[in-house]
Amino acid sequence: MIDYCLPQQSIADGLGKTFHSMLLMQLPDHQGVNLGIFDAVHNYGKPMPLPQLITSLQIHPSKAFLIQRLMRILINSGFFTTKNINNDDYEVEYFLTDSSMLLLKNNPLSMTPFVLLSLDPV
After folding, report:
1. In what residue span(s) does the O-methyltransferase dimerisation domain sit (predicted)?
2. What's the pLDDT score for residue 83?
């Protein structure tokens, strides 16, 4: 059983970041949820390098460069943090933040249905 227990302040911060992202930027967290980025990094069980993330998402190789761009936006939005590997700016590992825990599909407090509903056509 995975523990999704988060402190109340982390839940409040995560909700704030999710709503801010949805209202102002709209697409990054929506695309992250659609592609399963949050769940892929969580299921990896440790910090996830970009090549493994791209492989796990099963996207066409011609679009792989777009994942790095999307991840930069998600990092700046506070949904991920990074750690450089071997002091190389191009080789990083991605960590989930408390805010991104609210975008996991199996989390009982998941905002995923709301994020998908808010941007999908009716």
Report:
1. 33-105
2. 86
